[in-house]
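Order emerges. For instance:

***
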Amino acid sequence: MTKTSKIAKVGMLAAAAFILQVIGTYLGIKVGGFLDVEISDLPALIGALALGPGAGVMIEFVKNILHCFMTSTGFVGEAANFIVNGIFVFTAGMVYRSNKTKKTALIGLVLGTLAMSIAGIFANMFLLLPLYVPDWTAAQRFKTVFTLITPFNICKGAVLAVITTVIYKKISPILKGRK
């Protein structure tokens, strides 16, 4: 695959991710008032598996940069999305890269979900929630992280893993230039 081809595919997947993020935002399905229920990380996961972990992270980055132009979170939501989901797709892509089998993909998706959840704990406790709701105490942040955000991230990772497992083999030949 040429560099130009890879850049074009990353761009197309980033555009698809952004569209899914906008649709999810406008549907207004939120958990806890600020966690959007949407599947915009699906193109990044597919990109990480088909094109490599760096491509998945770049798809997340572009998606969130584009979303900054329509944010109401002061960019904290986009930073959260990029940090947490970037770790998810990078981890899944790195594991799958070593041995491209269905079993390794599943292991990568599970480890990606765990990495995302752990990163979400630290990022939300010490960076994101203090920026988003600066007047919250450490106890309020702790409660929110462990009763809302972490279960949300685990469920989101599981749902994305299932969807990715179902559709990846149908989409990957297109991304890899095979019929």
Q: What stands out?
A: Residues 138-175 form the longest helix (38 residues). The mean pLDDT is 92. The longest strand covers residues 30-31.
